[in-house]
Amino acid sequence: MVSKDSSKSSKKCKDEESCPEENPQKNVKCCLAVMSGKGGVGKSLVTGLLAVTLRKAGFKVGILDADLTGPSIPKMFGIKKRATGSNGKILPIESYSGIKVMSLNLLLDKEDDAVIWRGPVIAGAIKQFWTDVVWGDLDYLLIDLPPGTADAPLTVMQSIPLSGVVVVSSPQDLAVMIVKKALQMTRKLDIPVLGLVENMSYACCPKCGEKISFFGESNVDEITEQYAIELLAEIPIDPKISKLCDEGKIEDYDISFLNKAREVLEKALKDRK
Ligand SMILES: Nc1ncnc2c1ncn2[C@@H]1O[C@H](COP(=O)(O)OP(=O)(O)OP(=O)(O)O)[C@@H](O)[C@H]1O
Ligand SMILES: [Mg+2]
Ligand SMILES: [Zn+2]
What's the CA-to-centroid distance between 213 and ligand 3, angstroms? Predict the structure, then answer.
């Protein structure tokens, strides 16, 4: 159960029965989850870029990598150090620009060790990332959810007090149905959707700069209209992105196309209940 003095976290979690104990060593104002209906659409990338944008705007930001079987946040930020802890508390690792990161990768002996845990163990580990990590004072904790609408994302949504969700999609036809499924899940759990980020929306011709849509016309309008949500950003396919991610230098990317997303996230911080 949430203790009485935990009100500093934005709100109580959804499922009081399984609600983990609060951690006095954290004061997180706004927890936001980044979700996608399916894997590989760039959810981790969007989580990373949103964190970088907010950090550049002067906010205190953390990333909780809840994708335990495919953690990719530390690599993106070039974090090689292992996390340390004492008395049952774990210290997050700070990135180059001061973003606090916790990921299962930071706790494994070798970062490419495979994790073959069963559902309940995964759920327990995710809860511990919330309860046992010394997050300290944060304006935002961004949570990179595992892909899809299965157990693990559900665990996060029920056990961490979320102020909102950002949904990531890619412009393939097939993805529409899957995005809708993700949106239905957030509706059922009564978590506000801050908006949709479309990744790999287009590419720019290296010769003339013209926008090219690889996947045909985007159907993102259909989703945003039907669900009355905002389109926060359209991210191009950019070889620079994958290069910087591979090199662990995502913080060097110039992300002007996330300005609107940042404004919406700033509003979520101000308006949080
Ligand atoms: N817009 C883009 N331009 C170039 N490369 C991209 C772009 N978006 C994602 N990538 C690359 O595609 C790969 C997959 O992206 P990412 O890890 O963010 O996807 P994900 O949705 O988190 O995947 P998973 O479901 O496995 O967690 C990464 O290596 C990333 O560098
Ligand atoms: Mg990922
Ligand atoms: Zn051209």
Answer: 12
Query: How many Å apart are CA 141 and CA 229, to the nearest integer?
Result: 22
**Residue whose C-alpha is closest to residue 223's, from 187, 188, 181, 186:** 181
Q: What's this model's pTM, rounded to 2 decimal places? A: 0.89
- Quick check: is 272 in a domain? no
Total domains in the fold of the chain: 1
Domain housing 242 = 4-264
* Per-residue confidence (pLDDT) for residue 37, from 0 to 100: 83
Q: Which atom of ligand 1 is nearest to the CA of 200?
A: 1
CATH of the domain at 96: 3.40.50.300
pLDDT in tens, 42-76: 999 999 999 999 999 999 999 999 988 778 899 99
Please give the distance, rounded to the nearest whole angstrom, from the Cα atom of residue 209 to the centre of ligand 3. Answer: 6
Q: Counting ligands in written order, which one lies closest to the CA of residue 211?
A: 3
How many residues make up the chain in this entry? 273
